[in-house]
């Protein structure tokens, strides 16, 4: 990852964080709100592969952890695992179907919520498992599924530059579709 | 060969990131990096809050402009004009009701200052700027921080009762953990002579509070008020109204009664809050 790509990634994370805090937090149903930041590692997994997605998940998670009163580093841990998983799974797929990206975003967002809750419980935040997780899963997964295609395009653009474009295209599952 | 090397590098990246994350979590949870983490969070909030307010300031008028333009374009017939007027009047009425509700909330909040427990503590009036940034916590952000004397641990009152306590404070904002948060525990006293003690535990947003440690031979009934006990080492000063018992159930064979309570403060529409500057000694 070049410096240029790293700067682009940081800018993209900051912009999504701002969107999350200005729009995302105001959309609230059954006490839950969308989480656009987790879409970054998921999109990176689909656009660039597991390694890049894990890095994106770590960076986005750290940024999110700065602004939420939960254990610092928990989002980073959960999201780098989710990003890696998405990259690994989609990398092995060769068929192109229109619903694949929304479907992957839907499933991966749900997994990220459950993984966050379980990891939190392991770290002594047992109350995470007693929340209305179904509402949280729905509020995170559905908007992310709808935004999966533009998010993947945006992240692919942010992660690719003149030097890495060739390398990314050779590993990017999205480009093979 | 190249594929195997790339695969190994990918796995190494993941392992390194996981190790860093786990180390950061461990340092934060053990308290060794507590001041560093809270300092970083404080700086992040101080940088982010004005940017967020600025963006909100830009987004809101644009939203209003487009909403107005859409409505204007649709006004082609007299009937629609009248409908719009009716709509505007309804909006005015709703706005007026909203303002009245805000004023009532503020008045109820200021009335709390007469309580002996509140009188003794210097209050800081604050406004809620955002509801919880995480789906896993029940918190609100307020527009007052360390620069006005708000600090971590300060109890926070809403209209009619306790709302929660400050868990993070930056220069100009603070995060309040509501009593409905799953992590929240409030020591309370009840009974005619206020000599019975229990713990009120949060069960998540929108859910009733759970009153724990009420033994089966203790008299407690619906509608009974619960106030903070202020025992040594507790997180709240004594005498703050917390909740009202909503249901009591005895389970055969259980050592404790199953008791639920409703917060005295309306936590669903928080606008103004009163932070009580409390040093922590009862």
Provide structural commentary:
The complex is a heterodimer of chains A (177) and B (282). Chain A is mainly α. Helices cover 70% and strands 0% of the residues of chain A. Chain A has eight helices and no strands. Chain B is α+β, with helices and mostly antiparallel strands and 282 residues long. Chain B has three domains: 1-25; 33-74; 111-282, Rod shape-determining protein MreC, domain 1 (Thrombin, subunit H). In chain B, the strands form two sheets. In chain B, strands 1-2-5-4-3-12 form a six-stranded antiparallel beta barrel. A six-stranded antiparallel β-barrel of chain B has the order 6-7-8-11-10-9. Chain B starts with a helix and ends in a 6-residue tail after the last strand. Classes of the chains: A mainly alpha (177), B alpha+beta (282). The interface between A and B is large, with 51 and 49 residues.
Oligomer: heterodimer
Percentage of residues assigned to helices of chain B: 25-40%
Would you give the CATH topology of the largest domain in chain B? Thrombin, subunit H
Order of helices and strands of chain B: HHHHEEEEEEEEEEEE
The figure for the number of domains of chain A is: 1
By DSSP, the count of extended strands of chain B is 12
Please list the strands of the largest sheet of chain B in the order they lie side by side: 1-2-5-4-3-12
Top-tier CATH class of the largest domain in chain B: Mainly Beta
**CATH H-level superfamily of the largest domain in chain B:** Rod shape-determining protein MreC, domain 1
Features:
heterodimer; A: 177 residues; mainly alpha; Arp2/3 complex 21 kDa subunit ARPC3; disordered C terminus; B: 282 residues; alpha+beta; Thrombin, subunit H; 3 domains; 6-stranded antiparallel β-barrel; 6-stranded antiparallel barrel; 4 helices; 38% helix
Briefly summarize what is shown.
Chain A is mostly helical and 177 residues long. Chain A is 70% helix and 0% strand.
Q: Helices, strands, pairings?
A:
The complex is a heterodimer of chains A (177) and B (282).
Chain A: H1 3-22, H2 39-47, H3 50-65, H4 74-91, H5 100-122, H6 133-159, H7 165-171, H8 173-176
Chain B: H1 2-30, H2 34-73, H3 78-111, H4 116-119, E1 123-131, E2 139-142, E3 155-158, E4 161-169, E5 174-178, E6 185-190, E7 196-201, E8 209-212, E9 225-228, E10 241-249, E11 258-263, E12 272-276
Antiparallel strand pairs in B: 1-2, 1-12, 2-5, 3-4, 3-12, 4-5, 6-7, 6-9, 7-8, 8-11, 9-10, 10-11
